[in-house]
Fold this sequence. Notes:
The protein is an all-alpha fold.
Amino acid sequence: xxxxxxxxxxxxxxxxxxxxxxxxxxxxxxxxxxxxxxxxxxxxxxxxxxxxxxxxxxxxxxxxxxxxxxxxxxxxxxxxxxxxxxxxxxxxxxxxxxxxxxxxxxxxxxxxxxxxxxxxxxxxxxxxxxxxxxxxxxxxxxxxxxxxxxxxxxxxxxxxxxxxxxxxxxxxxxxxxxxxxxxxxxxxxxxxxxxxxxxxxxxxxxxxxxxxxxxxxxxxxxxxxxxxxxxxxxxxxxxxxxxxxxxxxxxxxxxxxxxxxxxxxxxxxxxxxxxxxxxxxxxxxxxxxxx
Length: 291
């Protein structure tokens, strides 16, 4: 029986050493904060266990704030999925030059992570009361966005349109590999059997892409539902959504209840976790189809 050398005995731990920074980052900035929120949701101010914070989620304006947040997330996810899918189809199957495709994918990677105060400022400078587009339409065409079109940047549709800035690029990034996975043989077989382009998409391509589309919608929903900084920076307290209600509870004044804020954050974690689980499950099914 031969003894393994010291280099062999150290080989397995050293292969995992590269994951140490990632594991440390996840623990410090994801696991521990999440555990702190979950524990705080079931505590009183003095640290004792209680379920009252969870019960209070059904009181006051909290249920309506969740419902508005869900509607905004669903609307932005639906519009982002439709527009992003159309753009991705044009990039993959259309006559788009390569010098256009590469910058578009690069921009999508940057824009999908552009949020918070800079995004809110950009849209206020564009569609706000004295924004560039607002002033141009009023001076050149006599169109007042709020009066004639009923559009207000500090409203439901205003926040939804703002979210589209990062929802559409995220959809393009995720759905493009799925579109590239559609085999040329499937389309050729459909054409040989007499199927038109519309029939191919309706009866072959879309059924195969359906898990990817539905999973990406779930991911976009979770992405919008968890967007906190953009909503607060853009609407302040003018729109009753969960992030603003949460900020009111944890900002530290006498009227706030930090533990109720933890409970609201716990509710947001549950909603986004469910959406992400749906996305992961559907993505696994989609990858199985495309193999």
